[in-house]
Write a structure and sequence with these properties.
394 residues; 8-stranded mixed sheet; 26% strand; 10 helices
């Protein structure tokens, strides 16, 4: 307990082995049989009790001394449908699947923290919950685990989580990035089918052309961002798909488009989705077309609790030093299902700089086929989690 960083350094090779083993067996979504078996086996060897969830999630609980306080840590486990091109000796053995976002590192770091915390649990008062979660990249595995009770019995008082790699600019390897308030955006998707009346391209007056209508709708979306959202808040509406027609001289019956919405404030999210639907319907009515409108809601805004961030920063400073704490200035318009946990209990989500350059000298970003984690930073992640557990329960 006196020097968590030294203890973490002593088990560094264990953490690296866990990371490499997991990197070899990436799996998608909530179908993680090899990954969950590996994690369960590691927990069994550490003597930590656990239970599982319908989506293959795992919750482990370290029972310390008498006490009511409960802190939780979370590691996501799923990978991405990416063909790995890292050239690493421990590259993926599952063709077409790769840990290209650092979830293997997250799982290994949390197992390392578990090993440290088990060794000193008699000196702590309360319980430590370890959440090993699937489907962060897809359907939000966090929500299913929450709905099935992962934050209850014992009831979690605070949750701490941080992301590996370089999720935010300006956070170098070995540094910890933190931010109060909104840190990751909410994400919603939309798809619209504009229905008109097709015909010959030479006689548009005999048709109701859906293509210019779809274009009007797309152009009008940007007015919502620039004229209805507070400039200091920011929002993103991106149309990533637009499809219409089969030949240059035929006006089609339909035109379809779709895209993504990112907002950093819950009220802005509600406003944007409401106004988009109104704009689509209004333009459709004015142009004698009909519109099938779908707006689907996904992950909410990730909002950090100020007191939880203060706690996290204080603990992390004991591991990396105050000089390596970096306040994140701008929230990301990327998204994370840590948001579901943060809606339920106070928590802090940040980042641990740990991005390794590829053999060509370039540091490739998350979700890239050449993305690499800096192994020499892994023990720091284990130490930070362990320090947070010790500080919370003493």
């Amino acid at each position: 307990m006196n020097n968590v960083k030294t203890t973490a350094k002593d088990i560094e090779q264990d953490v690296i082995k866990w990371y490499r083993d997991l990197h070899k067996i990436p799996e998608l979504h909530d179908q993680l049989p090899m990954t969950t078996e590996y994690v369960r086996d590691a927990l069994d060897k550490l003597g930590i009790r656990y239970n599982t969830y319908s989506n293959s999630g795992i919750r482990a609980v370290i029972d310390c001394g008498e006490g009511d306080k409960v802190i939780a840590f979370r590691a996501d486990m799923d990978a991405l449908p990416v063909i790995e091109e890292t050239g690493l000796e421990y590259a993926s053995t599952n063709k077409g699947c790769m840990h290209a976002c650092g979830h293997d590192a997250h799982t290994a770091m949390l197992l390392g923290a578990a090993k440290i915390l088990v060794s000193c649990k008699e000196k702590l008062q309360g319980k430590i919950v370890l959440l090993f979660q699937p489907a962060e990249e897809t359907s939000g595995g966090a929500k299913i685990m929450i709905d099935e009770g992962c934050l209850k019995n014992p009831d979690v008082d605070m949750i701490i989580n941080f992301h590996s790699g370089r999720l935010f600019p300006g956070v170098a390897n070995g540094q910890v990035g933190w931010k109060k308030g909104s840190i990751m955006a909410a994400v919603d998707t939309f798809n619209v089918t504009v229905r008109g009346k097709g015909g010959h391209g030479a006689y548009p007056d005999e048709c109701t052309d859906p293509i210019p209508v779809a274009c009007q709708m797309i152009q009008a979306l940007q007015n919502i961002v620039s004229r209805e959202i507070k400039p200091t808040h920011g929002a993103v509406i991106t149309v990533g798909q637009l499809n219409a027609g089969t030949l240059v001289n035929i006006i089609p019956d339909t035109a379809t488009f779709g895209g993504t919405i990112r907002t950093l404030d819950p009220k802005d999210r509600e406003l944007v989705c409401k106004r988009m639907e109104e704009v689509f319907k209004g333009i459709s009515q004015a142009t004698r077309t009909t519109a099938d409108i779908y707006i689907g809601h996904s992950y909410p805004v990730s909002v950090n609790d100020s007191k939880a961030v203060d706690f996290f920063v204080k603990s992390a400073a004991k591991i990396v030093g105050e000089e390596n704490l970096v306040e994140i200035q701008d929230a990301s318009t990327g998204t994370e299902d840590i948001s579901y946990y943060l809606q339920e209990v106070p928590g802090s989500f940040g980042t641990l700089g740990s991005l390794e350059a590829h053999s060509d000298g370039i540091c490739y970003p998350h979700h890239n086929s050449k993305f690499r984690i800096a192994e020499d930073c892994l023990y720091l992640g284990s130490a930070i989690y362990a320090q947070c557990g010790i500080d919370f329960l003493t």
